Amino acid sequence: MSIISKNVALAGALALASKAAAHGIVTGIVADGQYNLGYDPAFQYQRPPPTVAGWSIPTVQDRGFVTDLNGPDIICHKSATPGGAYVKIAAGGTLEFQWTEWPESHHGPMIDYLAPCPSGDCTSVEKTDLKFIKVAEAGLVNGSPAPGKWASDDMIANNNTWSVKVPADIAPGKYVWRHETIALHSSHEEHGAQPYPQCVNVEITGSGTNELSGGISATEFYSWTDPGIFLNIYYPALTSYEIPGPPLMEGGSSDGSEPSTPSPSSTGPPYGNSTATSTSTTSAGRPRPTGKPGGADKPTTTTAPVEATESVKPITKSPEATEQPPAPTGSAGEPPQGPPSPPTGGSQPPPPPPSKPDTPAVSFTSTFTGRIGKPTKFTCYLEED
């Protein structure tokens, strides 16, 4: 690639990043602990783009919302095309959808749908042929104080991750999973609600028998006058919320999410990562992919923490050494003002401790596997009075 071509691609990627920062999409899917790379608009500047299960939006350079509730864009996002791969998940398993940064002001429900692919192949399905069943939903958690706490707030609190159970009775086969949030911060205005639909190809395994008949097209889900679409979340404070869309399937999840405690230090793959990878994860936070490019079935080995090289005995102190005297107070229990008074009676402060202990040092080392990944040596000293 020439220098000019590289510069053009870089400029395009930077422009895309500046446009996309204010909205969100799903860039990662974890299926029962196995990470799968989702779609990112930055793939448009990669030759060739990675093959992923997430549906692509190759003609749109933003992460914005859909403006037509009844047009084809509401199915799987703007000008969306089918994903070229599948996320494998067992019926009854847990899917985690990892969103990019999400504005706290964009309160709203989290809704999940599932549609079988009529031809058995979701990579070439016509999206208007998909008939969806609602399998999970979650909306208002607490309406007071306004604008309240919403399912989307739970998603943000869970490291921008939403967890949902796959119905246990789903028949094995290939499906399109439609995951969506609807931002309601402007829903008091006409046509003000902002839907963000995301689609992922999933291959469900197991022995279920429910083939999800009787679904409807996503273009029939909503209208601008639905009480869950056209409402004011600011005044008065809401006491209830009617989640829009078709009714929830029998046995579906009415609270949608089962968030676990996120790991504040866990990080995911950088947005726009071109490597289709998979890895195991033990937290709801974004895992670090360990697969190789084009080889999700060949995970690499991560470095485990190194155990202490020597047996170290705990250092114990007498109760007198560990007990702290109460802090001095002034009148009425207030802390004393000014610096402490010097010792009186000619007494001198105790001499400083020796710079080197008389006893040999006991040391151990431990290697961290975080961003730095460098061994750190700790030295412990045993000192007698």
From TrEMBL:
Keyword Transferase: no
Residues covered by the Auxiliary Activity family 9 catalytic domain: 23-241
Subcellular location, record wording: Secreted
Region (Disordered): 246-385
Leader sequence residues: 1-22
Start-end of Pro residues biased regions: 336-357
Biased composition (Low complexity): 251-284, 299-312
Mitochondrion is among the record's keywords: no
Chief localisation class: secreted
GO MF: monooxygenase activity
UniProtKB keywords: Disulfide bond, Monooxygenase, Oxidoreductase, Secreted, Signal
GO terms under cellular component: extracellular region
Protein name: Polysaccharide monooxygenase Cel61a
Species of origin: Cyphellophora attinorum
Lineage, opening ranks: Eukaryota, Fungi, Dikarya, Ascomycota, Pezizomycotina
